[in-house]
Amino acid sequence: MDKEKCKERIMEQLEEVNDPELNIDIVNLGLVYGVDIDDDGRVQVTMTLTAMGCPLAGTIEQQVRDAVQKVDGVTDVQVDIVWNPPWDKSRMSRLAKIALGIHDG
Fold it and tell me: Which residue ranges does the record assign to the MIP18 family-like domain (predicted)?
């Protein structure tokens, strides 16, 4: 398995997972901090949420797991939700900022 190609496909799948409150995908929001793949196809996604105590954390976590499982070669998915470093709007892509009407200044 080419890990780099696999990681690209995983990130593409994660772009299909939207934050339910903001309705923008978790990649463009900057919520995905890292994707690690071992030689056996086990994937660990390290991510955060926009707010601690998010009532939809379980839903988002399951959507991430389901999205990553769609990628050929993935045998298992672990989602690690972290709070450090904390998320802020500077992590968002230009596309997400435009969609939310956030102007850098």
Answer: 7-79
